[in-house]
Amino acid sequence: MTSASRLAVRSAAALALLFSLAPASAQTVTSERPTTFTLGNGMQVVVIPDHRTAVVTQMVWYKVGSADETAGKSGLAHFLEHLMFKGTANHPAGEFSQTIQRVGGTENAFTSTDYTGYFQRVTKDQLGRMMEFEADRMTGLVLKDENVLPERDVVLEEYNMRVANSPEARLSEQIMAALYLNHPYGRPVIGWHSEIEKLDREDALAFYKRFYAPNNATLVIAGDVEATDIRPMIERAYGAIPPQPSIPAQRVRPQEPPPAGPRTVTLADPRVEQNNVRRYYLVPSATTAAAGESPALDVLAQLIGGGSNSYLYRALVIDKPLAINAGAGYQGTALDSAQFMISASPRPGVEFADIEKTIDAVIAEVATNAVPAADLERVKTQLVAEAIYAQDNQATLARWYGAALTTGLTVDDIRAWPDRVKAVTAAQVREAAQKWLDKNRSVTGYLIKDTAPKREEKRS
User: Is 327 helix (H, G, I), strand (E, B) or coil?
Assistant: First the structure.
């Protein structure tokens, strides 16, 4: 697979992860319980049987993401993700990807704030080869300036495509930077352009040697396998890799101070075709929340912003024709504090103030009065139903387990999520709105079209 095609696939996957409003923290309910074990070198293994077809998905998740980068070297985790396809002494650049293509499989990789992942989906008879390739590049990566520097240019071009040329992405970048004043979640996963430009081979190798080790990785195998059958294969491929003793048992990052007041960001761009207002609240993640808080936030997001029956959609799009769309989401899969997001696009001629007034009224209603029982049961049923339907995709199951386990949750946390959603009460939803949807905890971003005439350059 070429760098360009990998870039396109990775970008699509990253966007799917970013904008999926389904809580990736935990959504399994009817699938068979996975088998888990830990190798002697500390590598955690999860095997998820799915015997509907003779296909398997292998995912290796490293517990390192953009929030673990050294200050001043933003984008390093994502840069290394690109470089992991540059080959080893045993397998030159391109051999791994070409082998996957030749056997009719697919591959992908992705970087987030808390983890970096690599996966292949192949027929079950090819699993052993995939393990051998993946284990080899865990410690055997070979990097040279002649392939590192061109790949840095690829990343810079990706930045231009995904961020610099996208007003929507730039607004999200600026909102996150304003939401996290102290925590490294405030820097973009892809990095700041000025810092990406300076990343080099030594930076990548140091990061690789520091974080890529079996005791900092989770192997997830989903598909037509049984743990007892493939455990010897896993032991042979990964078991002899030495651990990295300097990796701490727990990741500790700088945390956010108590928010002192609401913040705003305005981005004007001549390419904007549709104005947009977004509000992000700083809220607990599934890992940091008190008992019952995270599922209550899941239910709250679905209630006020999940689809055409949601309170925000009805208030902004149906009851009063103020916006062309409106929604909300809670991204709870994070090691540290997460975000609750609200978004709306006003109709032509409608002021942001009118949109925000309606948003505030919806939140105040939920924070003051008990949610009607019928509405509560409806959204809880929707969330649990999504969990059941989504189990038809083995790669999705692997992603849920991998993302959750690399951000501090357990298999039991994942499997119990539907029951926790079912147990959410109207009082918990009201308390979540009161406590966490406080404007002082928010950043509101405005995306507008820049209509100012361009200044002509003076010629001497």
Answer: strand
Q: pLDDT (tens digit, 9 = 90+) per residue, 372-426?
A: 999 999 999 999 998 888 778 888 889 999 999 999 999 999 888 999 999 999 9
Which residue type, as a one-letter code, is found at position 427? A
Cα–Cα distance measured from residue 241 to residue 215, given in angstroms and rounded to the nearest whole number: 10
φ, ψ at 202 (rounded to 5°): -65, -40
Cα Rg of the chain (Å, integer): 23
Query: In angstroms, rounded to a whole number, what is the distance separating the alpha carbons of residues 198 and 176?
Result: 23
DSSP 349-393: T--HHHHHHHHHHHHHHHHHSPPPHHHHHHHHHHHHHHHHHGGG-
> Using CA atoms, how far apart are residues 137 and 212, in angstroms rounded to an integer?
9
81 is a catalytic site residue: yes
pLDDT digits (tens, 9 = 90+) for 220-262: 999 999 999 999 999 999 999 999 999 999 999 999 999 999 9
Which tokens sit at 277? 């207002």
Q: What is the 3-state secondary structure (H, E, C) of 115-161?
A: CEEEEEEEEHHHHHHHHHHHHHHHHCECCCHHHHHHHHHHHHHHHHH
> Cβ distance 323 to 346 under 8 Å?
yes
Give the active site residue among 81, 134, 158, 356.
Answer: 81
Q: Of 111, 60, 115, which Cα lies nearest the Cα of 83?
A: 111
What is the per-residue pLDDT for 389?
80
Classify residue 87 by its DSSP letter.
Answer: B
**Model pTM score:** 0.91
